[in-house]
Amino acid sequence: MSSRPHLAVVAIGRNEGDRLKLCLRSVMNAADVVVYVDSGSSDGSSEFAYSIGASVVALDMSRPFSAARARNEGLARLKAICPEVRFVQFIDGDCEVHPDWLPAACNFLLANPKVAGVSGRLRERWPHASIYNRLCDLEWDTPLGEAKACGGIVLMRREALEAAGGYREDVIAGEEPELCVRLRGLGWLIWRIDCDMAWHDAAMTQFKQWWTRSVRCGYAYAMGASLHGRAPERHWVKERDRAVFWAMVLPVLLVVACLALGPKSAWLALVYPAQMVRLAMRSPLPGMGLSSVDGGVKVVGKFAEARGIVKFWHDKVQGRSPKIIEYK
Hints:
By secondary structure, the chain is of the alpha/beta class. 48% of the residues lie in helices and 17% in strands. It has helices at residues 18-25, 45-51, 67-81, 101-111, 131-140, 158-164, 175-185, 207-228, 237-261, 271-282, 288-318, and strands spanning 7-13, 33-38, 55-58, 87-92, 95-97, 115-124, 145-147, 154-157, 189-200.
């Protein structure tokens, strides 16, 4: 214990079952303290976490739930029971930490005092179970080196977290990039190193799940752009505008063209298949079949993202608190 730089783990989850067992077992002997934050599980998750030595926080579910809130409450528990903690590994209950990750990540933070958070390669546990899992595995493979943002699986410097005020609890999706905007504004760096970090189990086998996840992405784009969309950051403005163009502006233009020019203008709608082909040709997936599905899913996903954008602005106009959007 004394040789480690006061490393702690905060795991969050709800009804993750055997996946949570894998998650907690992968970190129990690698950290000085492990906190598990449970969001109303009914599968004995809290009892299991307690039985193997984790400190358990049961969220008050009468208040709006978000992953950001769960992480903040886990951090608060850490400060109460282990105030000397320097580094905090955040992990979701559907992930298993790679045995090489924590030593490598801690060493990197020790050697780079300006880095607030470091992540590595997150891999999908069952990438061939569905095209959606496969796409997630590609999504996790982000460039190495200095980054603008990280995901939810990350080793963070506690000093930096506290300087930024922690996660913003009303951000129901994309809370990690939003935090990174504030961290970078304070002069901290975010980094990704060439090291396996964890296995993730998306468990996405149906198009409905992918659609819901894309709706959540759209909501995150709209909220992120609303919070930090001004120059020079322009946080998620491009992603928001791309969804608005393909799923809202372009369909209106096509309808107007049809009304003005008649049925002969219907060929203009081929812009969508053309976009699918363009994306398929750029897809890293092998084979024309998988690449075509990738292109098609990405184009259709813009309509789901647009729905999320509309939902965000509807909630904002109505003065409603954001509610978490879950795909599984």
